[in-house]
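It is worth pausing here to work through a concrete case rather than discussing structure prediction in the abstract. The textbook approach is simple: state the sequence, then state the predicted structure, then interpret. We follow exactly that order.
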Amino acid sequence: MAEFNQALRKVLRHEGVVFNDAGAVLNTGYVDHPDDPGGETNWGIIVDVARAFGYLGPMRALPYSIVQAIYRRNYWDEIQGDVIPDQEIAEELFDTGVNCGMGTAIRFLQRTLNVLNVKATKYADIAVDGDFGEKSVAALKAALQVKPWYRTAILRTLDSLQCTYYITLAEKNEKFETFMPGWLRTRVGGHE
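Step two, the predicted structure:
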């Protein structure tokens, strides 16, 4: 089953957190970019999410214990990361959810699973509703049993949908062009 702390380190790197070789944090990735609709951000957590979680202090001082709790409750638990049988797929969903929204990430997976089931001959279609429930978990597990290369097909399809999502965002609002190079460098492809 997938492991939260490993996935969190990957997400944090994508959010601009810098670690040294020993794993200590050198920079928490604090930003307050005028083009970012999320506003003030630290550890990849936007101010509104921190406030909704109950943190009222300055964003630069956001404690790591709260960061972990937010990521677990608001993101990891939404994809039932602890029951996903593949670390890399769990990390992809987690990372996409953090950057694009959990419902979006889950719908990407549901769409992916539906188009890979060969007209429902490998496993049943599932609703594309953004809810990662029992049927979505079962479909993912079934897909991973079809052929070893289905794992790669799932990851490539998720990346393709995410890339298209970013392009659409930037086409609708040029402020997002500011972030496109970084998103494409870190969040699309590049599975470690």
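Step three, interpretation. Residues 4-79 form a domain with the Chitosanase, subunit A; domain 1 fold (CATH 1.20.141.10). The mean pLDDT is 93.
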